[in-house]
Amino acid sequence: VQLQACGGGLVQAGGCLKLSCAASGNIRTINRMGWYRQDPGSQRELVARLSPSGDTVYAPSVKGRFTISKDNTKNTVDLQMDSLKPEDTARYYCNVAGWELIGTDRQRNFDIWGQGTLVTVSS
C-alpha cells in the first residue's frame, strides 16, 4: 500500500488550502484515515482523524477551521483548511491504517504515512 499526498504551499493568514491523500494498492479495508503535522523541534501531533463510521476527531486548535473528509470509493482523505493562522505552519502528513490483501486468501495489517507536504502561513 502506498500513499500519495498533494496540496500545501504558501498562503497568507486568513487564507485556505486543501490537502489530499490517496491510498493505493491491494486494500481490503481501511480502519482509520487522518492528518498529522509536525514543525521542527516539535513532536508530530494529530490534526484530524476519521473512523470507518465517519466519526471525526479534531485537535482543539483547528476545530471549526479545518474539515476532514474521505471518499471510500477512491480511498482518499482530504483536509480543507480555512482561516489559516501562522501557527498552522508545519509539515502535514496523512496516515492510513487498515488491511491489505496478500495473495488470494491472506491479509495483512498496514499503518502507513505519506511523505509529508509543507504548509506555510505568512502573517
* Total number of strands: 11
Please mark out the parts with pLDDT under 50 across 5 or more consecutive residues, or reply none. none
Rg is 15 Å
Mean pLDDT: 95
Largest sheet: 7 strands, mixed
Name the structural class.
mainly beta
User: What is the helix content?
Assistant: under 10%
What is the succession of H and E elements? Answer: EEEEEEEEEEE
The oligomeric status of these chains comes to single chain
Please state roughly what percent of the residues sit in beta strands, choosing from under 5%, 5-15%, 15-25%, 25-35%, 35-45% or over 45%.
Answer: over 45%
Taking the alpha carbons of the first and last residues, their distance comes to 38 Å
Number of helices: 0
Assign an overall shape. elongated
Give structural notes:
By secondary structure, this protein is an all-beta fold. The chain is 0% helix and 63% strand. The chain contains no helices and eleven strands. The chain has strands at 2-6, 9-12, 17-24, 27-38, 45-50, 56-58, 66-71, 76-81, 90-102, 106-113, 117-122. Strands 2, 4, 5, 6, 9, 10 and 11 form a seven-stranded mixed sheet that branches. A four-stranded antiparallel sheet has the order 1-3-8-7, with no helix packed on it. The chain is elongated, with a radius of gyration of 15 Å.
